[in-house]
Write a structure and sequence with these properties.
By secondary structure, this protein is α+β, with helices and mostly antiparallel strands. The chain folds into two domains: 53 residues; 82 residues, no CATH class. It contains one helix and seven strands, in the order αβββββββ. The strands form three sheets. It has a three-stranded antiparallel sheet with strand order 5-6-7, with no helix packed on it. A two-stranded antiparallel ribbon has the order 1-2. The longest helix has 46 residues. It is elongated, with a radius of gyration of 27 Å.
Length: 146
């Protein structure tokens, strides 16, 4: 019985390297396919935040926000990442959690709706006092349908 000659061994090594190279290429392409859209979305959000500083940047109608206060504990915790989208205010109900930017404010407020007032050209929503004590009374906000 004769062992494999050097030519056969070299050919086997080349085939193994070829398969390893192919697997490496597939993994690399998969990583790029996942990371490239994430990078594009991040760049879009960054550019929008600088070109339109008075608006919350969104991609495909969805805006990521980081919660900065504990007013929604334990449902939404400080530093949680939430995703919000625009909805018709007429569809909002008691118990819904909404995020909105009060007129003239640079921050976005997130609260649970505790009451819906009868609409008179606008929808009135009632929110509970903040857990931080900065809003001692129930707060009412009017939203116009878009």
């Amino acid at each position: 019985m004769r062992g494999k000659n050097n030519g056969d061994k070299a050919q086997e090594e080349n085939e193994k390297r070829g398969v390893a190279h192919l697997i490496g290429n597939i993994i690399g392409i998969a990583i790029i396919a996942v990371l490239l859209p994430i990078m594009i979305v991040n760049m879009t959000l960054i550019i929008k935040s600088y070109t339109q500083p008075d608006k919350v940047p969104a991609v495909f109608g969805v805006a990521p926000l980081i919660v900065m206060s504990g007013s929604m504990d334990p449902v939404i915790m400080v530093n949680d990442l939430i995703f919000v989208k625009r909805v018709d205010p007429a569809t909002l109900e008691v118990g819904d959690i909404i995020a909105f930017q009060p007129a003239g404010a640079t921050t976005v407020v997130t609260h649970r709706i505790v009451g819906v007032l009868p609409p008179e050209g606008a929808l009135g929503l009632r929110f509970p006092p903040r857990a931080t004590g900065t809003m001692p009374r129930t707060w009412t906000r009017c939203l116009r349908s878009t």
